[in-house]
Amino acid sequence: MSIEKSFPDRVEVAVPRLMNIESTPPGVSAEVVCLPGIAPDEVCGKAKRLSSALRMPVRLESKSPHTCAMTLFFRSPLENIASGTEWVTRLFEGAHTLSGLPYGQDEYGRLVAADFTILPHMLLGGRTGAGKSAAVNALLTAAITASMPCGLVLIDPKRVELRPWRRAACRVATEPDDLAIAMSEAQMTMRARYEFMERHEVRNLIEQPEHLEALGGPILIVVDELTEFLTLAGKQGGTALSSIAQLGRACGVFLVIATQNPRAELFSKSTGTETLRANLPSRVALATATADDSRVILGSGSEADASTIPPSLPGAFLRSGGGRALARVPYLSDRDIEKVVAAHPCQVTLIDLQDLAAAPKTQEGNEHVS
Ligand SMILES: Nc1ncnc2c1ncn2[C@@H]1O[C@H](COP(=O)(O)OP(=O)(O)O)[C@@H](O)[C@H]1O
Ligand SMILES: [Mg+2]
């Protein structure tokens, strides 16, 4: 008998002075709210005992000093992750910002979001098929539906990874020449933003959203796959990425880098990336081939090991700052992505090298500001 069948639709939980028991598909959950006068600790203790006795994950939310809501899940929310369509619908409703771009859901059904204002660049690693592209898709959905949408620069040396996003991007690069041009344009755009900041006496565009918006908003540079990128773009490409990782945050330019080869040697002097990893503070480890790979992503001090993530949970991940708590990205189909892309055209303009070459020279040279 399956686990759903072995429980009734409606659960009566015999905990004194708890009420509002409800049933919520797709599993069965019970929400129990404590009455005023009961210490939340008492309720939490009971809920945790109940949760472990029933082997059901529990979510506890404090509603007021004397009230808390409790949800018991018959199945782990990781197994019941929102479908791509539900996810997109939810994001269209929500007013999320750069300080909270949702890209997954944890074991208690809570959204996991990236705060690019504090941890400005993200490194995603995991073996092939672990769900890196699914994670990138979820993050990009949030990035372009945010209240101040991000412009996308897509670095796709494998050509097919970021394909569904192309129509929403301000730049797509797949060929070695394109990769170098996209990197130069991103760096020139950054330089122009710094010149703007100097003129307007702004230290940080993230703290001055009106200025950031005037410049077109944040820019997200997505590299899927780093090894391939470094092979095609060489040391110059690696150095460009490292410089964006160092200077990007203040001018609203962010990196999201995915790799299926999270090896320490990948970040080396010979590829111009020796400082890159240290400047990608937000880490997401999908299932890795080895514990060493997991440490390269999460850091050697991490207590979590992404090589233990079960293959039955594609898209499951561990993250820096998340301890051992597993979370999972939703799976968006190309159709889900098309829906988002159609409604969110790119609003950022990068400095275009071709336009620059064609522009008449001024006395000061080729000055160009975005
Ligand atoms: N949250 C998820 N739920 C169900 N299946 C998923 C999920 N995330 C990924 N997958 C499955 O895993 C496959 C590989 O994911 P993908 O993101 O392409 O991996 P990677 O980019 O790491 O190689 C997908 O085609 C999909 O079938
Ligand atoms: Mg992929």
Brief overview:
The chain is built from nine helices and 14 strands. Helices cover 31% and strands 19% of the residues.
Give a description of the structure.
The protein is of the alpha/beta class. It has 2 domains: 18-73, no CATH class; 88-354, Rossmann fold, CATH 3.40.50.300. Helix content is 31%, strand content 19%. It contains 9 helices and 14 strands. The chain has helices spanning 40-54, 84-93, 132-145, 176-199, 209-214, 226-247, 291-298, 334-343, 353-358, and strands at 18-19, 29-34, 58-64, 67-73, 101-106, 111-114, 122-125, 151-155, 169-173, 219-224, 253-259, 282-286, 316-319, 327-328. The strands form 2 sheets. The chain has a 10-stranded mixed sheet. A 4-stranded antiparallel sheet has the order 1-2-4-3, with helices on one face. Strand 13 and strand 14 (327-328) form a beta hairpin. It is globular and about 70 Å long. The relative contact order is 0.14. The site of adenosine-5'-diphosphate has 16 residues, from helix 3.
